[in-house]
Specification:
By secondary structure, the chain is α+β, with helices and mostly antiparallel strands. 11% of the residues lie in helices and 24% in strands. The protein has two helices and twelve strands. It is globular. The N and C termini lie far apart (40 Å).
Length: 236
């Protein structure tokens, strides 16, 4: 019996996030081959109603003072409270094509070409880091977005540069599955029509880089269907 693709053919366009898992049925979701990039491609779902380029500084009572800069990263928030509510967020388009959430307080503080990095050493910083670094790695093949390992090198070797570009789904929300001072696991909510899917990424704090980095020691994540999207925190 034929199955439908709740995320549409453009799911694979998510910078190769699911990479070479295309055409494999994962929990009822079928990921079809990518379609060629189109001029002035737009997200497959409406972008959140926030400014794309600029947003006023946060006036949230949870905002905290910044810590001194570490390495070449700028000073960022030290607010280690759990992100039950999404902080003020901008949306900027990564050079490889995806619209990503950006925070003046939590990062990315550096946007070096296709390597967007430097996030606050906080649970909220991990939320911004995991989705951004995952696209750095899978969309732009920036190996330094992940902790050095043979698994990371294998992933980069198998991904294809031509996967970058095109249109991408909008990340509507997030859910922190686990976190401590130096590690976190985040699920991201991706909509398509009335259906939702979630993708989980792990990050660890790198003392060498003074920044979060992806942990792909168990390979790339797989998608799962979401029956209750209200359990996710929506971006402001």
């Amino acid at each position: 019996m034929a199955e439908t693709d709740p995320l549409g053919k453009n799911w694979k366009l998510w910078g190769g996030i699911l990479a070479f898992i295309a055409a494999v049925v994962i929990l009822g979701l079928i990921f079809f081959p990518r379609t060629p990039p189109q001029p002035e491609a737009t997200p497959t779902a409406p972008a959140p109603s926030v400014p794309v380029e600029t947003a006023p500084p946060s006036t949230s009572p949870s905002a905290s003072a910044s810590k001194p800069a570490s390495g070449d990263c700028p000073a960022l928030s030290t607010d280690t409270s759990f992100p039950n509510d999404a902080p003020d967020t901008e949306w900027k388009r990564h050079p490889a094509g995806m619209l990503l959430p950006v925070s003046a307080e939590h990062g990315p503080g550096k946007m070096d070409g296709e390597f967007w990095r430097c996030f606050s050493h906080t649970p909220t910083g991990a939320v911004y880091a995991a989705i951004t670094l995952s696209f750095d790695l899978t969309g732009s093949l920036v190996a330094d977005a992940a902790v050095e390992s043979s698994q990371r090198d294998s992933i980069v070797a198998e991904l294809k540069p031509e996967l970058a570009g095109g249109s991408y789904p909008v990340i509507e929300g997030f859910r922190v599955m686990d976190s401590d001072k130096d590690s976190a696991s985040i699920q991201y909510l991706v909509p398509s029509g009335s259906e939702y899917a979630a993708l989980r990424w792990d990050v660890v704090w790198s003392e060498k880089d003074h920044d979060w980095r992806l942990d792909v020691s168990n390979g790339l994540p797989t998608a799962s269907q979401v029956s209750d999207p209200s359990t996710f925190t929506r971006w402001e």
